[in-house]
Design brief:
Blueprint lengths: L8 E2 L2 E2 L6 E7 L4 E8 L2 H17 L6 H17 L1 H12 L3 H21 L7 E2 L5 E9 L2 E5 L5 H14 L3 E5 L6 H12 L7 E3 L4 H10 L3 E7 L2 H11 L5 E5 L5 E4 L5 H13 L11 E5 L3 H13 L19 H16 L3 E4 L14 E4 L6 H4 L6 E7 L2 H9 L8 E3 L3 H10 L6 E2 L18 E2 L6 H4 L2 E9 L2
Parallel strand pairs: 7-8, 7-10, 8-9, 10-11, 12-13, 12-17, 13-16, 15-16, 17-18
Antiparallel strand pairs: 1-2, 3-4, 5-6, 6-20, 11-19, 14-15
Helix pairs in contact: 2-4, 2-6, 3-4, 4-5, 9-10
The structure holds nicotinamide-adenine-dinucleotide.
């Protein structure tokens, strides 16, 4: 069977009974519709939730840990086997360079392997309570949980919601973004083929405003694990409140990249462009505000521009392409409005700002200098290939500017002075920091934000906490 599935995948099969929301799948490199996906309607959603609840009660909850781990290892293997096909689908669906798409599919496979192994390492405690007896805790699954995911990293984010939730014994509703549902649907099918009982993973494409909201409000859904914009995250919290539903939120960012005068200048300048332009800037961790210490500012900017100019922007399906098109015309128009406002403010556009090709939603990487801290470009998440660079003179003023944002997701610090690295890292209000690198996402380590960048953590053993209840049992000794 082809992995291009164009209907909701529920109860172990495609569900063709719904045509409520036809979702056009556009290849951002050609601007052409290459397939249509039938989004779920509310009846289909209800069947999916009922099926997930029965699958949880009748099958998955009572699977032994070994049996559950074997299924997750099977899913990891199936993803690896189909890596190239999944990468092609992803690249066509969101314009991601094919080499990055392959890496992301492999990451998905490693996430399933990690959580397959984690199943036998998730345990409770015995506690020395004051009363005579034995007190112990059990970790129990929540029931039906939902993962609502965005379009920028569709496959790995789906995997990092689904794998820990399944490992903890829950059944899962996965709602991909309307413009990128294909690899999520393929995951549903591959998981089922790998032995996941029908109904344990239901993949329900559909608009956030109807299907996403209906999932969030549904009384049988015990938790919503959401990744997306801060605005949608706030709406989800609001909808979840009446049912006291658990939420975890991975939201927007406006991350700093801090370069001190004692940094390895060549390396910092060479590696920094991809810390903001990778995935054509559509990255919640994008280091879109660069702070450079005064004495090396000119040298850094010169090298940064050289490295930026060398980036290959082009057909995402060609090996060697580093930046593909943006995901949609709407997204590009939104980014261009920021570039326009920098122009109107009289800022220096040192590179980019224009479209390299007439066809496809391409936008050149764009470097803006001399921004002021009140500029829109400096303050707001742009979610495209735009960076602002500012100089700083002293550490404490710079740190105030770094933290003067509602966001707190990630960031980088470049210095060869260990004590400074630690001192500054402690003061930056972000959930994920990298020192002398831009690497932020590790399967084994917690990922998530401070402030309006979110609540809770994905990945690592921490993610499992969000998918378990803790039950305390006290056994009297006499
Ligand atoms: P979005 O909020 O528009 O959509 C994300 C998902 O939520 C989609 O599946 C969408 O259909 C659904 N949705 C939208 N409104 C909803 C509602 N009212 N109720 C329920 N579901 C709803 O975000 P996007 O444009 O797809 O993604 C870009 C945003 O995601 C950026 O802000 C980016 O920073 C953020 N992001 C964060 C992380 C992270 O880990 N912190 C990772 C990737 C992306």
């Amino acid at each position: 069977m082809s992995l291009v599935i164009t209907q909701p995948f529920i109860n172990g099969k495609v569900d063709g009974s719904t045509a409520d929301n036809l979702l056009h799948q556009i290849n951002p490199a050609s601007e052409e519709v290459f397939t249509e996906v039938q989004g779920a309607g509310l009846n289909c959603l209800q069947r999916a939730i009922d099926g997930a609840q029965s699958a949880f009660e009748d099958h998955w909850r009572s699977f032994g840990t070994r049996q559950r781990a074997d299924v997750l290892y099977g899913i990891a293997a199936a993803i690896k086997t189909h890596r190239d096909e999944l990468a092609q689908i992803e690249s066509m669906n969101v314009g991601k360079p094919i080499a990055d798409a392959r890496d992301e599919i492999e990451l998905g496979s490693r996430i399933f392997e990690y959580y397959a192994g984690a199943i036998s390492k998730t345990y409770g405690q015995t506690l020395p309570v004051a009363k005579q007896g034995l007190d112990l805790t059990l970790r129990e699954p929540l029931g039906v949980v939902a993962g609502i995911v965005p379009w920028n990293f569709p496959f790995p984010i789906a995997c990092w919601k689904v794998a820990p939730a399944l490992a903890a014994g829950n059944s899962v509703l996965l709602k991909p973004a309307s413009i990128s549902p294909l690899t999520a649907l393929a995951l549903g099918y591959l998981a089922h083929e790998a032995g996941l009982p029908s109904g344990v993973l239901q993949v329900i494409p559909g608009p956030g405003s109807s299907i996403g909201e209906a999932i969030t409000k549904h009384p049988l859904v015990r938790k919503v694990s959401f990744t997306g914009s801060t605005e949608s995250g706030a709406r989800i919290m609001e909808l979840a409140a009446p049912g006291i539903k658990r939420v975890s939120l991975e939201l927007g960012g406006k991350s700093p990249n801090i370069v001190f005068a004692d940094a390895d200048l060549e390396r910092a300048a060479r590696e920094s462009p991809m810390s903001v332009f990778a995935n054509t800037g559509q990255d919640c961790c994008a280091r879109s505000r660069i702070f450079v210490e005064d004495s090396i500012y000119d040298a850094f900017v010169e090298r940064f521009l050289e490295a930026t100019q060398a980036l290959k922007v082009g057909d995402p399906l060609l090996d060697g392409t580093q930046l593909g098109p943006m995901v949609s015309a709407t997204q590009r128009a939104s980014v261009e409005s920021y570039i326009q406002s920098a122009r109107q403010d009289g800022r220096t556009l040192a590179w980019g700002g224009d479209r390299p090709y007439a066809k496809g939603y391409y936008l050149n990487p764009t470097v803006i200098l001399d921004t002021e801290t009140n500029d829109r470009c400096w303050k707001e998440e742009i979610f495209g290939p735009v960076v602002c660079i500012r100089r700083f003179h002293d550490e404490s003023t710079m740190l105030k500017e770094v933290n003067d944002t509602p966001y707190g997701l990630s960031g980088s610090i470049w210095t060869q002075h260990l004590a400074r690295a630690i001192r500054v890292a402690r003061q930056v209000e972000s959930g994920v920091l990298s020192i002398n690198t831009h690497s932020s996402v590790h399967v084994e380590a917690p990922f998530g934000g401070y402030k309006q960048s979110g609540i809770g953590r994905d990945l690592g053993m921490n993610a499992l906490d969000g998918y378990c209840e803790i039950k305390n049992i006290f056994i009297a000794e006499d």
